[in-house]
Specification:
single chain, 4 helices, alpha+beta, elongated, 2 strands, 86 residues
């Protein structure tokens, strides 16, 4: 095989469908850093596998409900949550 024949194979990745659940059950800390980190990890997961390959759910309970409460005054959280809902 030549390099031009191998290159497309190296960039194509086929993933099996995945179902993923992320739990948010604690306070975020200063600057909502833990909440934002959870949203970034979720976005990275979807970006890596493709929106049609992964079914991702974020479950918030206990102190994790602060993610929604804090989104009222934090545009980054608001944007991340809106992206995840979409």
């Amino acid at each position: 095989m030549t390099l031009t024949e191998i290159a497309p194979l190296a960039t194509e990745q086929i993933y099996a469908a995945q179902k993923v659940t992320d739990h948010v059950d604690g306070p975020s800390g200063h600057g909502d850093c833990r909440y934002l980190s959870t949203l970034r990890k979720a976005q990275n997961h979807v970006n890596a596998l493709g929106v049609d390959t992964v079914d991702l759910v974020v479950v918030m309970h206990g102190n994790g409900l602060g993610m929604l409460q804090n989104a009222v005054g934090n545009d980054d959280l608001k944007t991340g949550i809106a992206w995840l809902k979409g």
